[in-house]
Amino acid sequence: MSAERARITIFDTTLRDGEQSPGCSMNRQEKLHLAHQLDRLGVDVIEAGFPIASDGDFESVKAIAAVVRRPIIAGLARACRPDIESAWEALKEAARPRIHVFLATSDIHLQYKLRITRDQCVEQAREAIRFAKSLCDDVEFSPEDATRTDPDFLCRVLDAVVEAGATTLNIPDTVGYTIPSEFGDLITTIRQRVKGIEGVVISAHCHNDLGMAVANALAAVAAGARQVECTINGIGERAGNASLEEIVMAMRVRPDRFAYETGVVGDQIFAASQMLSEITGVPVQPNKAITGRNAFAHEAGIHQDGYLKNPLTYEIMTPQSVGVPDSKLVLGKHSGRHALSIRCEQLGYQFDRRALDDIYRRFVRLADKIKKVEDHHLLELIRDTHKPSGSATPLIEPMVAAKAAVGSVPSPEASGEPAAEPTKPFPVGPQTNAFGVPVPSDSQHEQTQQEDYLWGV
Ligand code: KIV
Ligand code: ZN
């Protein structure tokens, strides 16, 4: 760890805020299983649940606290005695317990939800933190809906809870309303105005209603927050929470702008994402940054060609750095000859230029119809293509690709696909370019590249 990089505490709330998203509730066994993976992932704090919410959640928090010993285990509580007692009861066997108390502070919540005055709010927060502190050294306070709270009043509440013993002040953008510049300014205001702030950690908890949760969390860090609350795959209430993997990888890929360290083990990210999706049955959106199935897939011909020459042309991090087995070249109508020939090689077939052109034309027609050309389609197409005899262009003998150049595409045998027929000559039709214009049959490499470009557009 270099001296100038500040260490950011990663507070994972997948098992609490994440679990609150529709369809994502987990039982005790499932939570325990995921908690072990979060431990392997290297998060600093696991918010294991909201113990007063149900007997099941109480038991889950208790079970996690008993066996997951490295990270801090947090439990959520409203700012009242029964909640705090229940949280402590569930957490007290943890190696490193934390009670997380929250109370709304915005006028709209005070007036319509809690029906209390600002003065009552300050007193309730103070009392709750005092009580939590009498049970546990590590106490976090969250002023719910902080970003819609009058900043003067927010600082008044924060003064009171710091004085009462809070060790972390978490600033939630509960409804995903703020924007990065505004949230950064709010963190700066808190740092300048709250008494005793030097002795506590400022944390950011951002929701994604406007799609800015990660940007807001990073803005908070830039302004001095040293803990971020986040979830795997960004799950959470409504549009979700800031995604753990996006925050961590933004810091890793852009250390020039985000000079921070975390304890996250990058190559455990994908496993955590997959495990969560498997447990909840909620799939990861395909284009989800870092963990979506398309995050390292390339379909456009230009992209595939560039990627094959040097992955850095179209990838800003390696799939391996986040535990994804490999990049994928997806064969669709935008793919070019370069990617097609490599996939054919991976399947055991090598073609000369003319044979490849022929296969390529058929492939594009097929891709137009079926969107994504899978290996079995390609093998069928190869078989069909060389059924008729009489071509002057030989198909080079099927070969077993010694090493898949891209992706880990199984051999036809390994994939259970029927092996393609032994070679027969290809029929040679008139060669045309992307616009159907005939091209000389002895076109050279440059032309292939040009056509790939055109097809790829
Ligand atoms: O979004 C929120 O305000 C919360 C708090 C309980 C921290 O989840
Ligand atoms: Zn939340």
What does this molecule look like?
This protein has 2 domains: 6-280, Alpha-Beta Barrel (TIM Barrel); 297-453, no CATH class. It has helices at residues 28-41, 55-67, 81-91, 107-114, 118-135, 151-164, 180-193, 213-222, 244-253, 269-280, 301-309, 337-346, 353-370, 375-385, 412-415, 445-456, and strands spanning 6-7, 9-12, 45-49, 72-78, 97-104, 139-144, 168-173, 201-206, 227-230, 260-261, 297-298, 328-329, 350-351, 395-396. Helices cover 41% and strands 13% of the residues. Strands 2-3-4-5-6-7-8-9 form an 8-stranded parallel beta barrel, surrounded by 7 helices. Strands 1-10 form a two-stranded parallel sheet. The protein is an alpha/beta fold. Mean pLDDT is 86; it is low at 388-457. The structure holds 3-methyl-2-oxobutanoic acid and zinc ion. 3-methyl-2-oxobutanoic acid binds next to strand 6 and strand 7. Zinc ion is lined by residues 17, 172, 174, 205, 207, 237.
